[in-house]
Every structure is written in structure tokens, then in C-alpha cells.
Write a structure and sequence with these properties.
By secondary structure, this protein is mostly helical. It folds into 3 domains: 66 residues, no CATH class; 39 residues, no CATH class; 48 residues, no CATH class. The chain contains 9 helices and 2 strands, in the order H-H-H-E-E-H-H-H-H-H-H. Helix 1 crosses helix 2. It starts with a helix and ends in a 7-residue tail after the last helix.
Length: 218
């Protein structure tokens, strides 16, 4: 459930019934508590973040939205559970592979990603190094085009070159990823009065830094 308030009200209805005698939703809370107490199986409530892809919560949101717009068919609008009782059998969900190794065998299990924001980001960062990447940027598109022709050994040889210090290596990676500090980058964050070079007053950028400032003193 993504509503901490609702969880608190249900808890209060269970533990302090007398406090809800004049509650606006007293009838609804009584029905919820009745279903909890009469259930043959234990019911556990967990607080989750809203609108980030948690399976059960997204399913509940869909039912709630349907109920708000229609006076009928809140249950019939969704496919019934599979024969094994799985209510999400009709859904395709992203999963990660987990290995269970014993003395004789290796067993692979697929575990659904419970959170389409944090868990998916962590999974992509671990396996594809794209957790926070903007794949629509020019840098990413240039990188994809270069992959077909670049010599990876030569391109990354500076990492093992002892004549290049750590600071220089870091600047190369900043240039490659578009994070090299320039006036253009500093201006949106209020660290510069404008995005122009302080010397030549031309628009500042990484390309301009690479080609060289045209000021007479340089």
C-alpha cells in the first residue's frame, strides 16, 4: 500500500476501535477489518512508494481508478488468477536471474524486479552500466556510432599509460561523458553569470576548450 495514512487508519481501527466511532469512513474501515480478521490466510500490510512500478500496488491503483470512474465491474475488468493462484500471470514483468549453487547443480531462478525505479536502475547499472544514462543525448549517440569502427584497445590505452597522471585520465573521462566543467555547465547552477568564456567572451563549450581559446593572451 502506498498510503501511510490509510495504513495508520486501518491499524487504529484494529487496535483502538473506539476512536473511529464517528470517523467519516468508519463503515469502510469496519469492512476492511472484518475481511482481515475473517481471512483464512495471514494478511500483511507493507508501505511502498507510489507510482514506481511495484506490482501489487500498480494493480490496486488500476482497480481504484476503475472504481472511481465506474459503478460496476471492478472485478470483471481484470483477468482471473491462473490455475496456481497467481493474479499476475497475464502480466509480463522485468526480472533478474538468480543462481542457486549446490554441490552438484546450479539452479537458475527468475525473480521479478519489485520496483521499476530503484531496483531497475540498480540492475541496469550493475549489468549494463546505464543506470543513470540519458540515451537520447548526443554523447550516447556518438558513442553508439563509434562502436562499429573504434579500436577499443587503442581508445582505452591511456588507462594503462604510466606517463598520463590520474588528473589527466579523469579529465579525459569527463570530456567523453560531457561532464567537463565549463562556463556553459556552471551557468545553469548559478556558479557563473553567463555561459561565455571569461577571456574571449565566445560561447563556452567542451569543443571550444579542445580547439583552444582565441583570446590574444593565449
Amino acid at each position: 500500500m502506498d498510503s501511510a495514512c490509510s495504513l495508520s487508519q486501518i491499524r487504529k481501527q484494529l487496535l483502538f476501535l473506539e476512536l473511529h466511532r464517528k470517523h467519516t469512513h468508519s463503515k469502510l474501515l469496519k469492512e476492511i477489518v472484518y475481511m482481515i480478521t475473517e481471512s483464512d490466510t495471514p494478511i500483511n500490510f507493507y508501505k511502498v512508494k507510489a507510482h514506481i512500478g511495484v506490482i501489487g500496488n500498480e494493480f490496486a491503483d488500476a482497480i481504484a481508478e476503475h472504481a472511481a470512474l465506474h459503478n460496476y465491474g471492478h472485478d470483471e475488468a481484470f483477468p482471473p488468477p491462473s490455475p496456481d493462484g497467481n493474479p499476475f500471470a497475464h502480466l509480463y514483468w522485468l526480472a533478474e536471474k538468480n543462481n542457486e549453487t549446490t554441490h552438484t547443480t546450479i539452479k537458475f531462478n527468475l525473480a521479478p524486479l519489485q520496483n521499476n525505479k530503484d531496483k531497475l536502475k540498480a540492475h541496469l547499472s550493475k549489468h549494463h552500466r546505464l543506470g543513470d544514462a540519458n540515451t537520447n543525448s548526443g554523447y550516447h549517440n556518438y558513442w553508439k556510432r563509434l562502436l562499429t569502427s573504434v579500436n577499443l584497445t587503442t581508445s582505452n590505452s591511456f588507462w594503462s599509460n604510466t606517463r598520463i597522471n590520474v588528473l589527466q585520465k579523469r579529465n579525459v573521462m569527463k570530456f567523453r561523458t560531457g561532464t567537463l566543467y565549463t562556463q556553459k555547465m556552471a551557468h545553469p547552477y548559478g556558479r557563473a553569470t553567463n555561459s561565455s568564456c571569461l577571456l574571449c567572451h565566445q560561447p563556452d563549450s567542451q569543443i571550444r576548450m579542445l580547439s583552444g581559446c582565441q583570446h590574444a593572451s593565449i
